[in-house]
């Protein structure tokens, strides 16, 4: 069962406030190269079609921001904004139990996250799953005072600024035939 750190009680509200104010802790870990992902990541883990979609979305996103692909400083500034949860007032971190950190549990958490995102949308709350946050699992655990659990993803949420250029980027949908094979 996933554990979501969401402000529900005085203690968890305090933890969420600490995380918002501790964006600098994540930025410091990022600047120092202190990554601590609980789950391995490699660019080659994506199928070619997925990689093409990631590249296309990146081009659209950075285009909306007016950032050139080779502008290292602007891209670093965008990463820093990500580590501050894009200014969102809330963030949830989805963990799995350290003893049950396998692919099946990750699928369960993915289904939970999708339900969470859809529920937020139904209530008019905007959200942004952030894989980058999972690269700093030790920092997140330290800031939250969480002794265990493996971090899968963070989700920033609140109300989107409709005028922000970043919110103009859209990933679009891939045609079902390009992503799915039906047998039988």
TrEMBL record:
According to the UniProt entry, its GO molecular function terms are: oxidoreductase activity
| Gene3D superfamilies named in the record | NADH Oxidase (3.40.109.10)
Q: Where is the Nitroreductase domain?
A: 56-159
Pfam families linked to this entry: Nitroreductase
Superkingdom of this protein's organism:
Bacteria
Per the UniProt record, which residue ranges are transmembrane? none
InterPro entries, per the entry: Nitroreductase, Nitroreductase-like
User: What is the name of this protein?
Assistant: Oxidoreductase
